[in-house]
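Kindly draft a polypeptide, keeping tokens residue-aligned:

***
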Amino acid sequence: MEEKNKEALLKDFKDAIINLEMDKALDATNKALESSIAPYELIDEMSEASAAVGKKFEANEYFISELVISGTIMKSIAEILKPKMTAEETKYKGKVIIGSAPGDLHDIGKNIVIVSLIGAGFNVVDLGIDVSPDKFVEQIENEKPEIVGISALTSATMLGIKDVVQALETASVRNKVKVIVGGAPLTDEFANNAGADARAKDVVDGVRICEKWTSS
């Protein structure tokens, strides 16, 4: 494929996500895959689109409803990409359960992390948004994952991460898993104070941390 044509397809893909155009985004996804563009390249573009949507939110150009639409679009794209990625030979690395912190209704970044982890060879269980501490505990007991991921997009909802970790302690399952947290307002200091094992600075960093934990 000519580089110019490839760039045009990737631009159409990213622009459709940023502009919240579901049909165009899905059509662009299929056209890119048909043109032999690798799923990982689309994930990179999704990550950039997610950052662009986040900036629009911070600038008050987009609001909660737009974030929800954007998350829905990227989740739909993820469903298309998953079989393309898992079809490739990847060694099973472990199981991750991941959900948004209690009260947090955002899943833009989480959905990209999920697709990236699946592509890296992880079995990922998506708990969705606004996940209660009790549900995290229940799913750890049911799914027996090696890793628990908790995301938070706002400074208010990130406080719920502490409640989740405390619930894991109370239920005596905290020592059975590694806890990784991520989201725009989080810092390493907060993650440490909340009782998490690590904070992912971005999608790539998060996957790298999970791979390190399961490689031994």
